C-alpha cells in the first residue's frame, strides 16, 4: 500500500475542497542571505498581469526596519506592500513579511504574530509554506532562493504533498546555496532553475496546470488505466482503487514536466522510458508527514488513551504497536517518544515493539537512519529535542534508545498480511486517498490485527465507515477507536479478496486437519529429541550474560554472592569459572570450544563435565550470541590396578600430596589474581562512569555551542540581507545625489548649506559669485569668507536670527560687479523635521531689477513728456515713433495706435513726408549717432509749425540707443 501522508488534515475537509478548487495560485518565495538579488532577478521577468499573488518571506533583522518593499517596487510595476495582519491576498500583487514577525495564511488572509521561538531558531519560511499548502493545496507554489541553512525544505515537502508545485534556485546561480541544496537533496523540488527562468516556467505549463480543472474520468479513463496497468506490471503495486482525482492530478504533473499533454502519449512514453515509471511511482507516493502532527491528538494519546490501555498490564507485558504508512518515520518516532515519556513518568517496566511500515524503500531508509533537518524544531519542543535527539551538523538524529524501540519494514497494507495481537494501530491520512471499496476492506483487516480492546488511531478526516460493530469510539474529535470483540472481522478477512487470505480460503477441511496432524507430529518429535539428546545449554551474549536457559543448570551454575547478576562467568561453580572465561573469550574471536573435559565441584563432590562454547549469529536482530553446553561424563568402570615392580606406594602418595598442595597454591594465586582483576574492573567501571559524566557535560556544552552557532549563523544571514538592502539603498542615494547635483547646477541658484554653528557643509557652483568659495572651504565658518557684496554684510546676522526664531528672511543684495541677487535665509530641516542648520540661497534678479528700473524711468519720462504743452514726439534712430505727448495727439488729431511704432513719414496720412523735413533729419542723424549735442529749428508751413529737433541719450525705454526729440513749437499759421 502506498503510504500517502499530508502535512495537515484540514486540506481535505469539504470546506477546504471548495476553496481550493477555485481561486488563484499563490506563490510563496523564501530566501535568506543573497536573496535580494534573486528577488530582483525574478520580478524583472514576471509580467504584472500573471494572475498570481506573490508572498515573500525572508530572514530579516528583527531590530531594523526593512526597505525590501521600496527596493522591489523599483523592479516591478505590481503593487508591493509590507504585509499586515488580516490582509487579504489579491492576485497581481506582492506582499513582503515585516521584520520580527511570523506569517501564515488562513482562508486567503495573512496572519502575523510575534515569533515564539528564540532568535536564531526561527524557521519563518517553513511556517508560511506549510500554511500555504493547507490553504491552497494544488494551487500553492513554493520557491526557495539563495540562503544558508535548511529553512524551506519542510515547507516544500508540504506543498508537494498537497499537490502543489515546488521550485528551487539552481545552486550554481545562488550567492548562498545552502537552502536550495537542502531542498534538492531532500527530493522535494520539481524544477531547478535560475531565478530569472522561473517566471517562464510558471507562466507556461505549471500555471496552466494549476488553472485547469481536472479532466473528468470518462475523458481520461482510457489513458489513465493504461498508465496504471504499466505501473502494476513494473512495480507490482495496483493504484486502481486510489481516488481518481489524486492519481490524475499527479499523473498530469509528471506529464507537464515532460511536455506531454495526452495520456495515451504518456503511456507510450512510459513504455519507452522505464526510468519515468520510477519517477511516477515516487510521485504517487505522497511521503509527507511530520513529528507530532495534530499535537492535541498526541496529548490525548498520552493523557487519556495509553494510560487506560496499560492500566491492567503486568510488568513483563510486551506492548505492540503498528504504524501503517509511516513515510519517513516521524509518526512512529513520535509514538515511541510518547511511550518512553509515559514509561518514565509512571515507572512502567514493560517492553514495547513498534512496527513501522511503508511501501517505498527510500523512505524506509530515511526512517531507519533517523536523521532529520533542523526544521523539525517547529514541531518538536526544545525539551524533547534535548532529551530524545542528538544535534549533528546536518540536523537532529533520533537517539538510539528511541530508534531501538521501532522496527521499520517495507510492506503493502493491501497485499501483505497485517501484524497481529496489536495494542495500538496508527493509520493516519492513508485512507483519504483510497476509494470506499478499498477502505471497507482495510477496516476489518485493522480490527483483525488488534487485540480485543486495542486502539485504532486515525486522522480527523478518516473514519471507520459502516463498521460500527467492530469499534467503539473513544475520542470522536481525534478519531480513537477501541476494538470490540467480534468474529465479523475474521469472517470478512476470510471472504475478502486480499492476497494474503487467498490460500486459506481455498483449503478444504480435510487439508486443514491433515496439516494440523503433521504439525502435532513434528512438535512431538522435536520435544522428544530435545529431552533425550540435547545437553543442558545456556544462550548468552558475547559478554556471558544469560539470555535463555535450557535444561537443569544447577550442577554447573549457582547464584553469585553480592549483587544479583545473570553473568554466566560469575555464576560458574568451582573448577568451571577459569576455563569458561577462556572459552567465551575464544568464542568472541570466532573460535569455538568443543568437548573440553573439566572437573566441576558440586556439593563437595567433583565430577567431570564436557564444556562446549559455540558462537552463533542471529539474522533477525543482527546480534552475535553464544551457545554454552554442559554434558556430564560417565565415570569409568574401576579395574584392578596392575602392580609394577619397584614402585613404592608411600612415594606415590607423597607425590600426589605434593601435586595437590601445588594445585591448591596455584588455585589460591589464581583466585587472588581474579579478585585483583575484579577490583581493577570495578575501578575501570568507576572511571568509565566519570568519563560518561564528563562526556555528557561536553555534549551539553557542545549543544550550547551549536545553539550559539545557529544564532550567529542566523544573525549573519540577517546582516547579509540587511547589507544587501543597504547596498541597494546606497546605489539609490548615489543616484539621488547625482540628480540633486545636476538639479542645483542647472537651476543657477547659488546655495550654501550651514550647520547650527554656521559652518559650511556644502555649496553649489553659483554660490561662488557671492562668496569667494573653493572646495577646501567645506568645514570652515562662513564668517571667515569675505562676500562680494556692496555695503554692510548682515547675512550672518540674518542666519542667527533664523536659527533663533525659525522665520525665513528675504532681501535683495548687490554684488560689486553690479549684479543683483535675491538672498533667502531659511532653516535646514531634516526628514524627522528637526532644525539642523541654515540654508542660504541666492537667485540672480539683475534682469528683473533693470526691467523694473526701465519701467519706472519710462513712466517718469512719459509723465515729463505729457507735461510739455507743445506737441512732442520721440523718435528712434530708425525714425520710428517711440512715444508722443498728449498735446501731440490733440494738435494733430491722431491716436496712439496710429502713431507709436510708425515712421515719421507715415504720420498724418503722410503729411510729415516732405523733402524739407527729410533733408533736415538726414542732416541730424549722423550727429545723433555720436551723441553730440545738436539742435536745429525750422519752419514747416505744410505742417503748420516750427519744428525743433534735438538729440539726447535714451531715456524713454532705457534701450541704450540714441533718440531724437521732435518738438512742434509755434503755430506758423497763427503767427502769419
Automatic annotation (TrEMBL):
State the SUPFAM superfamilies in the record. Answer: Chemotaxis receptor methyltransferase CheR, N-terminal domain, Methylesterase CheB, C-terminal domain, PYP-like sensor domain (PAS domain), S-adenosyl-L-methionine-dependent methyltransferases
- Active-site residues, record numbering mapped to chain: 32, 59, 151
Output the InterPro entries linked to this UniProt entry: Bact_Chemotaxis_MeTrfase, CheB_C, CheR_C, CheR_MeTrfase, CheR_N, CheR_N_sf, PAS-like_dom_sf, SAM-dependent_MTases_sf
Question: Which Pfam families does this UniProt record tie to the protein?
Answer: CheB_methylest, CheR, CheR_N, PAS_10
Question: According to the UniProt entry, what is the EC number of this protein?
Answer: 2.1.1.80
Keywords for this protein? Chemotaxis, Coiled coil, Hydrolase, Methyltransferase, S-adenosyl-L-methionine, Transferase
Entry coiled-coil feature ranges = 656-746
Give the catalytic activity.
L-glutamyl-[protein] + S-adenosyl-L-methionine = [protein]-L-glutamate 5-O-methyl ester + S-adenosyl-L-homocysteine
Stretch list, region Disordered: 1-26, 632-651
- Name listed for the protein in its UniProt record: protein-glutamate O-methyltransferase
Native species of this protein?
A: Methylobacter tundripaludum (strain ATCC BAA-1195 / DSM 17260 / SV96)
Question: Could you read off the lineage of the organism from its UniProt record?
Answer: Bacteria, Pseudomonadati, Pseudomonadota, Gammaproteobacteria, Methylococcales
Amino acid at each position: 500500500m502506498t503510504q500517502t501522508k499530508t502535512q495537515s488534515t484540514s486540506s481535505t475537509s469539504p470546506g477546504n475542497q471548495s476553496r481550493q478548487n477555485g481561486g488563484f495560485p499563490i506563490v510563496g518565495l523564501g530566501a535568506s542571505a543573497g536573496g535580494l538579488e534573486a528577488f530582483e532577478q525574478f520580478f524583472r521577468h514576471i509580467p504584472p498581469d500573471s494572475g498570481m499573488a506573490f508572498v515573500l518571506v525572508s530572514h530579516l533583522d528583527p531590530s531594523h526596519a526593512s526597505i525590501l518593499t521600496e527596493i522591489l517596487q523599483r523592479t516591478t510595476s505590481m503593487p508591493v506592500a509590507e504585509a499586515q495582519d488580516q490582509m487579504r491576498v489579491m492576485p497581481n500583487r506582492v506582499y513582503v513579511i515585516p521584520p520580527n514577525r511570523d506569517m501564515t495564511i488562513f482562508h486567503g488572509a495573512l496572519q502575523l504574530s510575534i515569533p515564539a521561538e528564540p532568535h536564531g531558531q526561527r524557521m519563518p519560511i517553513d511556517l508560511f509554506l506549510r500554511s500555504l499548502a493547507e490553504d491552497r493545496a494544488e494551487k500553492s507554489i513554493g520557491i526557495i532562493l539563495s540562503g544558508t541553512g535548511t529553512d524551506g525544505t519542510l515547507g516544500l515537502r508540504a506543498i508537494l504533498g498537497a499537490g502543489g508545485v515546488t521550485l528551487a534556485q539552481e545552486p550554481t546561480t545562488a550567492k548562498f546555496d545552502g537552502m536550495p541544496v537542502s531542498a534538492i537533496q531532500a527530493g522535494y523540488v520539481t524544477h531547478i532553475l535560475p531565478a530569472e527562468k522561473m517566471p517562464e516556467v510558471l507562466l507556461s505549463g505549471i500555471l496552466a496546470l494549476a488553472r485547469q480543472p481536472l479532466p473528468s474520468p470518462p475523458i481520461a479513463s482510457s489513458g489513465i488505466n493504461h498508465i496504471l496497468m504499466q505501473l502494476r506490471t513494473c512495480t507490482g503495486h495496483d493504484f486502481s482503487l486510489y481516488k481518481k482525482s489524486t492519481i490524475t492530478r499527479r499523473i498530469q504533473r509528471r506529464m507537464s514536466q515532460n511536455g506531454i499533454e495526452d495520456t495515451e502519449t504518456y503511456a507510450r512514453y512510459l513504455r519507452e522510458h522505464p526510468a519515468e515509471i520510477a519517477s511516477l511511482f515516487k510521485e504517487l507516493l505522497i511521503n509527507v508527514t511530520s513529528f507530532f502532527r495534530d499535537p492535541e491528538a498526541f496529548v490525548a494519546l498520552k493523557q487519556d488513551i495509553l494510560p487506560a490501555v496499560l492500566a491492567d498490564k503486568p510488568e513483563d507485558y510486551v506492548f505492540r504497536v503498528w504504524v501503517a504508512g509511516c513515510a519517513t518515520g516521524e509518526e512512529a518516532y513520535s509514538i515511541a517518544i510518547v511511550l518512553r515519556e509515559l514509561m518514565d513518568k509512571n515507572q512502567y517496566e514493560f517492553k514495547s515493539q513498534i512496527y513501522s511500515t511503508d511501501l517505498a524503500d527510500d523512505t524506509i531508509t530515511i526512517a531507519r537512519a533517523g536523521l532529520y533537518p533542523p526544521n523539525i524544531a517547529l514541531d518538536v519542543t526544545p525539551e524533547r529535542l534535548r532529551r530524545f535527539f542528538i544535534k549533528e551538523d546536518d540536523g537532529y538524529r533520533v537517539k538510539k534508545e528511541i530508534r531501538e524501540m521501532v522496527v521499520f519494514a517495507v510492506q503493502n497494507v493491501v497485499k501483505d498480511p497485517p501484524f497481529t495481537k496489536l495494542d495500538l494501530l496508527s493509520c493516519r491520512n492513508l485512507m483519504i486517498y483510497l476509494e470506499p471499496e478499498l477502505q471497507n476492506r482495510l477496516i476489518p483487516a485493522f480490527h483483525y490485527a488488534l487485540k480485543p480492546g486495542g486502539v485504532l488511531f486515525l486522522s480527523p478526516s478518516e473514519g471507520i465507515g459502516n463498521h460500527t460493530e467492530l469499534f467503539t469510539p473513544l475520542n470522536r474529535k481525534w478519531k480513537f477507536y477501541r476494538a470490540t470483540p467480534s468474529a465479523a472481522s475474521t469472517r470478512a478477512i476470510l471472504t475478502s479478496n486480499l492476497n494474503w487470505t487467498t490460500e486459506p480460503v481455498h483449503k478444504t477441511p480435510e487439508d486443514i486437519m491433515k496439516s494440523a496432524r503433521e504439525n502435532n507430529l513434528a512438535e512431538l518429535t522435536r520435544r522428544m529429541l530435545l529431552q533425550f539428546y540435547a545437553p543442558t545449554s545456556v544462550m548468552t551474549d558475547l559478554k556471558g550474560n544469560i539470555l535463555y536457559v535450557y535444561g537443569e543448570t544447577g550442577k554447573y551454575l549457582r547464584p553469585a554472592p553480592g549483587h544479583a547478576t545473570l553473568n554466566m562467568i560469575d555464576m560458574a561453580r568451582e573448577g568451571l569459572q577459569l576455563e569458561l572465561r577462556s572459552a567465551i573469550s575464544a568464542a568472541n574471536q570466532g573460535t569455538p570450544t568443543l568437548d573440553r573435559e573439566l572437573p566441576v565441584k558440586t556439593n563437595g563432590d567433583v565430577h567431570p563435565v564436557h564444556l562446549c562454547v559455540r558462537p552463533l549469529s542471529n539474522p533477525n536482530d543482527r546480534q552475535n550470541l553464544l551457545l554454552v553446553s554442559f554434558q556430564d561424563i560417565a565415570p569409568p568402570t574401576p579395574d584392578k590396578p596392575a602392580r609394577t615392580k619397584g614402585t613404592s606406594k608411600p612415594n606415590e602418595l607423597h607425590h600426589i600430596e605434593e601435586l595437590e598442595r601445588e594445585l591448591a597454591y596455584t588455585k589460591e594465586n589464581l583466585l587472588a589474581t581474579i579478585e585483583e582483576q575484579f577490583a581493577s574492573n570495578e575501578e575501570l567501571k568507576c572511571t568509565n562512569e566519570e568519563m560518561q559524566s564528563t562526556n555528557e557535560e561536553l555534549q551539553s556544552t557542545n549543544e550550547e555551542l551549536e545553539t550559539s552557532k545557529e544564532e550567529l549563523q542566523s544573525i549573519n544571514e540577517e546582516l547579509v540581507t540587511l547589507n544587501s538592502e543597504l547596498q541597494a539603498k546606497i546605489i539609490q542615494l548615489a543616484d539621488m545625489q547625482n540628480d540633486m547635483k545636476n538639479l542645483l547646477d542647472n537651476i543657477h541658484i547659488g546655495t550654501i548649506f550651514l550647520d547650527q554653528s554656521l559652518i559650511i557643509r556644502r555649496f553649489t557652483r553659483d554660490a561662488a559669485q557671492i562668496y569667494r568659495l573653493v572646495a577646501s572651504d567645506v568645514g570652515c565658518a562662513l564668517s571667515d569668507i569675505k562676500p562680494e557684496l556692496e555695503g554692510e554684510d548682515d547675512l550672518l546676522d540674518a542666519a542667527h536670527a533664523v536659527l533663533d526664531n525659525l522665520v525665513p528672511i528675504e532681501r535683495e543684495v548687490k554684488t560689486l560687479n553690479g549684479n543683483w541677487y535675491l538672498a533667502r535665509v531659511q532653516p535646514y530641516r531634516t526628514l524627522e523635521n528637526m532644525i539642523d542648520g541654515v540654508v542660504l540661497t541666492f537667485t540672480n534678479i539683475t534682469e528683473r531689477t533693470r526691467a523694473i528700473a526701465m519701467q519706472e524711468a519710462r513712466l517718469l519720462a512719459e509723465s515729463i513728456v505729457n507735461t510739455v504743452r507743445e506737441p512732442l514726439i520721440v523718435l528712434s534712430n530708425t525714425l520710428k515713433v517711440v512715444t508722443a505727448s498728449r498735446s501731440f495727439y490733440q494738435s494733430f488729431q491722431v491716436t496712439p495706435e496710429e502713431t507709436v511704432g510708425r515712421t515719421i513719414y507715415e504720420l498724418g496720412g503722410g503729411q510729415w513726408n516732405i523733402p524739407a523735413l527729410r533733408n533736415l533729419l538726414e542732416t541730424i542723424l549722423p550727429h545723433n549717432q555720436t551723441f553730440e549735442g545738436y539742435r536745429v529749428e525750422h519752419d514747416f508751413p505744410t505742417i503748420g509749425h516750427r519744428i525743433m529737433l534735438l538729440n539726447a541719450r535714451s531715456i524713454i525705454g532705457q534701450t541704450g540707443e540714441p533718440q531724437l526729440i521732435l518738438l512742434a513749437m509755434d503755430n506758423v499759421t497763427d503767427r502769419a
